[in-house]
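--- STAGE predict ---
source: upstream dedup step, 1 unique chain passed
mode: sequence only
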Amino acid sequence: MDVVTADGSEITVSQSSNPDLYWAMRGAGQNFGIVTKFIYKIFDYPNSQDIFHATYHFTEDQLEVLFIHLNNLINNGTLPREVNAYVVLRSKPLISPRPVFVYHFYYFGTSEQASPYTQRILSLNPISISNATFPYKDVSHRSFQASVGDPTCAAGISTKSRFPVGLKTYNAFTNRKVYDLFEDMITTQPALATSFVQFEAFPMQGVKAVDAASTAYAHRHDDILV
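--- STAGE serialize ---
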């Protein structure tokens, strides 16, 4: 990185040049200087690879069994690298008068390969199910409407404020309290009806493969993002 520091100095920051600043900026990022140029490592996407995506809806009475399932799936940060799973607590009046849990499951492969995981989810008796298979390059568009040309990325569109929390595991008792507070909030304040709580789980192998001493970053012992 080429960086201008607070005293106006122009310096190069890398593993061999100003390594202490590189350690700090690589993880913590801001507040150390203005980056005027950087070299970033990117990877080609797997052009021939498909993604299997399934969506399941669960009602509030299934909260405890759902989060027990998610804890077992995440298994202390050992979620398989082919899997991505997240649950969104939100209002969906067409499905239920009360807030529901929308479980998004992704598998880097075919529906048949995903079957050992999807069968476990089906055993929880979701109230609705949908699924699709699409190319890896279409994940952002098909899943979040967040690709180039989608409304989410249009100029002038405001973004939602998000307030993340890191966890080691889910606590069903706590999540029951979160559900009650969320339901009360959107009931008493209808302007907040489009709010949501997102419980995310990502494979951590790539993160944990990086030497923890090589960079500064917070929440390094967390396996879950809320």
